[in-house]
Amino acid sequence: MARATWNGTVVAESEDTVVVEGNQYFPLDSVKAELLAPNDTTTVCPWKGTASYYDVVVDGEVNSGAAWYYPAPKEAAAEIKDRVAFWKGVEVTA
Question: How many Å apart are CA 26 and CA 36, to the nearest integer?
């Protein structure tokens, strides 16, 4: 079971994660959507495509851009479609 927590709150939990470049990608339906807020940041990976970001919000505290996903990953990264990964202080354990 993989779990992502921030500020003592479980943000995502799943037995069905995909590991890419050391990051656990959680299925979208395993992430607590009420703890995510849209963020306008995007970045580009040459082999995965364009990433979009969410802020993680717990008890009114905002961790800006702490979650990311690939809405339309390139073919080489198709396995991470509809999945979310975390960083910036979000603790991920497996």
Answer: 14
